[in-house]
Amino acid sequence: MRRVTAHCDPDNSPSWRLLERLKLRREGYFRETGYCKHDEHGDPKWHDTFAYGLLGSEWFSMAEPVK
Questions:
Q1: Is residue 54 within 8 Å of residue 25, measured between CB atoms?
Q2: Where are the domains of the chain?
Q3: What is the Cα–Cα distance from 4 to 22, expressed in whole angstroms?
Q4: Distances (CA, A) of 1 to 4, 61, 62
Q5: What are the Cα distances from residue 51, in Å, to 8, 29, 63?
Q6: Strands (E), 1-67
Q7: pLDDT for 19-30, tens place per residue?
Q8: Residue 67 burial (C-beta neighbours within 10 Å; 0-12, 13-18, 19+)
Q9: Which pLDDT does position 65 carry in this prediction?
């Protein structure tokens, strides 16, 4: 494994807290990266995204040895 990435909505604190408990690093904050709903005028409702990442070397240095 070289790298793991994840993206989540900044308003979804359970999601980003889970990623941080799993030791992924917050690498970016992207504004208006996508939309999933439209407003009453039919215009898209854009949302922001947190980007997280974890390198394989970071993961393996944290992992406990198998006994």
A1: yes
A2: 3-62
A3: 11
A4: 8, 13, 14
A5: 7, 6, 23
A6: 3-8, 25-38, 44-55
A7: 999 999 999 999
A8: exposed
A9: 58
pTM, 2 dp: 0.79
pLDDT score, position 60: 86
Other beta carbons within 10 angstroms of residue 50's beta carbon come to 21
Locus of tokens 């807290």: 17
State which residues of the chain have pLDDT below 70.
63, 65-67
Residue 25's SS3 state is strand
Q: What is the pLDDT, as a whole number, of residue 15?
A: 98
Give dist(CA 52, CA 20) in Å, integer.
9
DSSP string, 35-47: EEEE-TTS-EEEE
For residues 24 and 51, give the distance between their C-alpha atoms in angstroms, rounded to a whole number: 10
